[in-house]
Amino acid sequence: MMKAKFILSAIAIFCVGFVAQAQDVKIGYTNVELIMDLMPEMEQIGADIQDYSQQLQTQIQTKSADFQRQVQAYQQAAQTMTEEARNAKEQELTKVQQDLQKYQQDSEVSYQRKLQELLDPVQTKVFNAINAVAAENNYTHVFAESAGQSPILLYTRDEDKFTELVLAKLGIELPEGGAPGQQ
Fold first, then answer.
1. Are 162 and 29 in contact (CB under 8 A)?
2. What is the mean pLDDT of residues 42-65?
């Protein structure tokens, strides 16, 4: 009987410890995509990446048109060429086509790098603001909402206005009616 009381007392103390610890937990839930979209820098980034994309597209189109001209010239002259000359020209055209495909792939990689280069300072600013708001408001955990995916956090209170606090920290007002697309 004494042993049972001791075990029950130990369990009760153990549970009280967990409850006391759980009261110190404050969880924030924020929409990073919304914050990023509302950053004033995003308009310029959008314009810059659009210009860069157009430059890449123009270069690809120029190279593609040059390749097409070479193919047409070959097709017109193929009948008068020796077999050896035709084979050499076909190999040359195959190499030009491969180079064009590689250039297109490299352009896609270059576009992604440029986009990340432009976004990095804004992402850093947003994450620094999130960290500052979390520290100032005694949050112990902050989770990001992922568009198109199930949220990582299963429960959050409606009165949790962490996204709004981060926007305020950045000096950005939430548009009337709340977040775009969330009405």
1. yes
2. 96
In three-state form (DSSP H/G/I as H, E/B as E, the rest C), the secondary structure along 55-104 is HHHHHHHHHHHHHHHHHHHHHHHHHHCCHHHHHHHHHHHHHHHHHHHHHH
- Token pair 């491969």 is found at 98
Q: What is the per-residue pLDDT for 38?
A: 93
Q: Count the alpha carbons within 13 Å of 161 in the hemisphere toward its beta carbon.
A: 8
**Angle separating helix axes 41-77 and 83-136, nearest 10 degrees:** 170
- Stretch 60-84: mean pLDDT: 93
3-state helix/strand/coil string of the chain: CHHHHHHHHHHHHHHHHHHHHHCCCCEEEECHHHHHHHCCHHHHHHHHHHHHHHHHHHHHHHHHHHHHHHHHHHHHHHHHCCHHHHHHHHHHHHHHHHHHHHHHHHHHHHHHHHHHHHHHHHHHHHHHHHHHHHHHCCCCEEEECCCCCCCCCCCCCCCCCHHHHHHHHCCCCCCCCCCCCCC
Angle between helices 83-136 and 162-169 (to 10 degrees): 100
C-alpha 107/C-alpha 109 separation (Å) is: 5
**Residue 160 pLDDT > 70:** no
